[in-house]
Structure formats: structure tokens, C-alpha cells
Amino acid sequence: MKGVYAFFWKGMKEFFASKEAVFWTFIFPIIFGLLFAGVFGHESSPSSIPVGIVPERDSNNTLCEVFVNGMQEAIVDGKKLFELHNYSSESSAMSSLKNGKVKALLIFDDNFTENITSGIGQEKIKVILDKRDAQEYQLVSSVLASYISSFEDRVREIKMNITMEYLTQNGNLTQENITYVERWMKSFANPLKTQEEIYHGKSSAKTARMWYLTAAIGVTFVFSGMISAASMISSEIEKGTARRLLTTKTKPWEMLTGDILTVLLIQLISSLLIVLSFIVVFRELIIFPPSVILMLVIAALSTTSLGLLFSGITKTQRAAAGMANAIAWPISFITGIFFPSFLLPEWMRSIGDYFPASALLRGIRKVIIYNQGIGDYMPQIIGAIALTLIFLVIGSILFRWRMRTL
Amino acid sequence: MPLLEVKSVTKYYGKKKVLDNVSFSLEKGEILALLGPNGAGKTTLMRIIAEGLTHRGHVLFKGKILKDRSVIGYCPQEGILYEDLTAYANLKFYSYLHKRDGRWARKMMEKFEIPDKKVKELSGGMKKRLSIVIALVGEPELLILDEPTVGLDVESRHQVWEIIRNLREEGKGIILSTHYMEEAEHLANRVAIINEGKIISLDAVDALKRSSGIKSAIEIRGLFKDIPQGFVRENSSLVFYSQEPKRDLVNAVTIASKVGKIKEVVVREPTLEDVFIKLTGRRLKE
């Protein structure tokens, strides 16, 4: 075991003796994580939706005016829900929508008020929506539909009250029947009454920060873990030190274990520093449960074992590091380490399922971001552990083969 | 019983035979120099002994087949040092590999006066000294030093020689490879001249000179267009190896004057290089 300790001790000394290695392994991921968390990890405030209005002609004291005034007064979390722009014609309003000044147009008929109050049948409002941005369209159309629905409720209520007044005066109904008819009409007009409750869970800001915390850890594992492991063994072989080491009392497996432990510990120290930097900068307590710590260790081991595998199939340190680098970049993007996996195409998501580090990172996110257990995620975790062991075994076999053929 | 016996060792790289039936032995407190040009097979022979490179034939240590290579102190030609670590850290690391602790490393640092700086800040001579000290970690009886002074300045080379001589005094058996004639002459008890994978002569330096049949070397310095038969070229000189210099001097000068302009004529004792040229027909640094 003294041989294992020797390589571990030497590896740590060599790592800390290199300022570049310390920067890229420890400082860069912290900067990366804090930068993204700082940019995207703040509370979002509601914004006003710009809407163009083409009112009915002579809109004073009309229901159109009531409708528009209601829009002007609609407030969510202290912010006006709509930013209204008046237009005299549909064509001028349309050019504003095309320019992106407004996201929707509401065009009222000239007889809007008359038709609603005294007409029989339905009145219409022409709604034109900008669908160039699908998410914006989804948001604007739902907010407008919701507002129009509220307005309809109000109109129904007024109409119902007028009807009830008429029935009370001319309907020859008993008081009991009037009460019954009133209830019947209310349920007819508004069959559903929504009851709104708000869940104040983890804020979107904290969720984003936790996301980028895990992304920074993932990037550290994929880059420094894989590249360091790939380079470490290859450099011993390339420099000739591995040959010299074989003439000592130390066995090759001691060299392998010592080097693996070095890379593993460096990755875990880097993770710890990332967490500490988030605690200090964002002033929030982050405590990882044992299941998360276990998944972190396995994820670090998985990238280390992949690096070991690369060092076994390449001849030089430069080739090993280049290979690890070339694989680390696409892996960090397409397996959900850097971007949320729901943004990725289906086939890319499945790559993430088979890449152990990203599968384990998803498990970690389930626990620390969404407060879920890992029970239902166990098959993926077991799969990641199995793949890690397979990489480790193949890497060790290749290492032994390379040491024999030095 | 010899400390080391190499018996009929042959080595192929693919179809190329790089060592051909090499045999020799080494006693305690003896330095054996392997002398030969680049590519002669010196390093391969040392790797067979120190690293156990696959081969035909046998390598015996104290009469037994050598299996545990940790009994050998090995200083290969390429760098075995970790440049970003200090000299002490390097020595401590190798001490751990030999299951020793750091105290031994500290003691050796003092004994060999190695400064505790980062290796990349050490001079070439100091690095070589550190590499030799690393070879001593397991307190071996046998040391294999592959080109221990290559690339060093004269002063550093002499310092390394001093260390090697002291190690011999301590009773260690040492095999060193070199292509410096004077190194072999100054250090070695015996010299094995190796060329194209074969040991073509193995003896003490004086005995080698005697057995080569060269009594004197007539060195004719000047500018020459051609090398006459019976002469060899050494830098800008023509050299004629003679049993009887008084008899051959005039004849040699007459022949040399026909192929160029003579500046100076020197009759000197033969060197190991002369022996090498006589035996192989080529210069050591070719």
C-alpha cells in the first residue's frame, strides 16, 4: 500500500505545483458556475404585455371603454399586466404588430356596446396574435383569453342581474322560486369557480443557481477528470518513468490505484470548492445528503475510468488528452450537463442516459433541485455504476497491457 | 561467485537482431564499461538486465536467475525526474516506492549535497547526480548507469565520476554505458567493446591496448584529400597504427605527403579510441 500512497502523494504534489492545473481545475469551474448562476439565477419580475387597441368609434361611455379601462388597471405583483397602445385603424395597428411594437391587437366592432347590451346573440372582438415567437405567443394568447373570459363573466353577471330584476317585477314568482332561479342562472353563467392557491416552493432563482452549481461540477468532472486521468498514465509511460517504476518494489496496480485516487480526490476537492463559492457568493446554505455525495463520488470515478480507458488506447499523452478533450466537449453539451435535457432532441437525451456522469448528475439534480427521492431513478443509477465498473475494468486491462509492452 | 552473470543473451526487435549471444560477468566492487557507438545495443542490454526486457539467454544475480529487479539500482538515460517537484520530493517519492521513508531521502540530500530546489531549476549535472542517488534508494549491490554523463560539461562530468568511483569503493558492482573513451579509461576496471549487438572485445583497458597489437599511433595532422591504405582518419588527421614506430615513421609520412599537405607529425601512445577503431574499423562517435 506504500506504493499507492507514493503515487497519490506524488500526484497531489505535482498537481499543486502547477499553477495552470490549479487554475483550470479549481478556479475556472467556480468562475463558470458563478457567472452563469449570477446571470440566470435571479428572481424574474412580471413584465407588461404590449397590446394594440382599435376601439369602437365614439368610445366614450361605452362597454369598449370599460373593457380597455379594465385592461389598464389589471395589475400582477405590482406591475401593470398590459401596456396599451391605441390605433385609429386596423392597418396602422397591424404595422405596429409587424414591427414588434405590440404582441397582440384587439379590434372592436363599431357597434360593440350596442350589440352586447341590447342585441340578441354574440358580439365579437377580433384578436390578432403575433406567433413569430412560440413561447411569447403561448403566454400572450393565454393572458388575453383569461382577461376576456373575466370580462365575459362580468357581462354575464350584469345581464343576469337585469334578467332577475325583470323576473322579480314581472315573473309572478314566489320568493323561494326567485332564489332558486337566481342560483340556477348563476351556475348556468359561471359553472366553474376557480380557487387559486399559490405554492411558495424553491424560487426559480434558486433553482437556476442549483442548476448551474451542478453544471459546474459536471463540467469539472468531464473535463479535468477525464483529461487528467488520460494524461497522467500516458505521461508516465511517455516520459519513461513508468519503465523505471517497474524496477522498484512497487507493483503496477499500486501505480494505477494511486493515480486514480489522485484524480478522484482532485475532482471532489473541486466540487467542494464550487459548493463553497456558491455558499459564500449567494449566501445560502447548501447541504448535500449522503445519496448526493455518493452519486458525486461515482460520477467522478466514471469520468476518471473513461480517461483511463483513453490512455490505454492512445500512444502519447498529447493524443490521450486530445481524445478526452474532443469527447468532453460534445458530451457536456448533448448529455444535459450544460443544457437542461428537455431542450435537447429525444435521441440526445438517450445518450445522456447511457453516459454515467450525466445520468448521475440528473439524479443529483432530482434530489437537490426538485427535492425528490432517488428511488424511482435507481435503474439509471445502477446502470451508471455498472458502466463505470466496465470502463474501469477495461481501462485496467489496457493499462496492464501497456505496462507489459513498454 | 560473480555478482552478475549475463549468459548468451540475444534480443530481436521484430526480425532485427540487436544483441547477439552476449555474455559477461561482473564482480563486486568492479566497474564494467560498455563502450560502443549509438545503436550498438548498449541500452537494450541494460534494459534486459534492469527492466527484464524479454530476451533469449540468462541473467543471473549471485548465481540465481534475476527475477526481482528491485535489487538493482537503475539510472536510465531518459529523465526519471518529475520536473515540477523539488529534488527532495523526487527522492522521497522513489523512497516510498522502495518502501522506505523520507528520512533516508533527507540523509542522501545532505550526503550528495543536492540543493532542495525544483528539478527544473537544477543544472544538468545536479539532475544527473540526483538520478544516480535515486538509483541508490534500494541500497542495491548492483548499479546500472546508462550514459551517466551524457550532455554534461567537463566539471559536472568529473563530479559524477567521483560519485561513481566512491560507489565502487563501497563495494558496489557497476555497469555503465558510455561513448566517451576517457570515461571508460578513467572509471572502468574492464571495458566491453560492443558493436552491432556483439561484444567484440572485453578486458581491462591496458590489456585491450596490448591485445590490439598497437604499440604506437603515428598521427599526421594536416589537410588530406584521400585516406591511403593502412591509415585511418581521425578528425583532420591521418593515423597509422604501428608495431615499430621508428621503422614506420618515415614511410607513413611519405605516403601521407602524397595525398595532402602535412602540418604536424606526432607519435603517441594508443588510446582506447585507437583500439576501438582498429577493432571495428569505425570511430566511436560515428
Tell me what the structure shows.
The complex is a heterodimer of chains A (406) and B (286). By secondary structure, chain A is α/β, with parallel strands linked by helices. Chain A folds into two domains: 2-42 and 204-404, no CATH class; 49-189, abc type-2 transporter like domain (abc type-2 transporter like fold), CATH 3.40.1710. Chain A is 69% helix and 6% strand. Chain A has helices spanning 2-17, 19-40, 63-73, 90-99, 112-117, 134-170, 175-189, 204-239, 241-245, 252-282, 290-313, 317-334, 346-354, 356-368, 378-404; strands at residues 49-54, 75-76, 79-80, 82-86, 104-108, 125-129. In chain A, the strands form two sheets. Chain A has a four-stranded mixed beta sheet with strand order 4-1-5-6, with helices on both faces. In chain A, helix 1 packs across helix 10, helix 8 packs antiparallel against helix 10 (252-282) and helix 14 runs antiparallel to helix 15. Chain A starts with a helix and ends with a helix. The model of chain A has no long low-confidence stretch (mean pLDDT 86). With 286 residues, chain B is of the alpha/beta class. Chain B folds into two domains: 4-209, P-loop containing nucleotide triphosphate hydrolases (Rossmann fold, 3-Layer(aba) Sandwich), CATH 3.40.50; 215-269, Alpha-Beta Plaits. Chain B has helices spanning 42-51, 87-97, 102-111, 124-135, 154-169, 181-187, 205-211, 245-259, 272-280; strands at 4-13, 16-26, 31-35, 56-61, 64-65, 72-75, 142-146, 173-178, 190-195, 198-203, 216-224, 232-234, 237-242, 260-268. A six-stranded mixed beta sheet of chain B has the order 6-7-8-3-9-10, sandwiched between helices. The mean pLDDT of chain B is 88. The interface between A and B is medium-sized, with 22 and 25 residues.
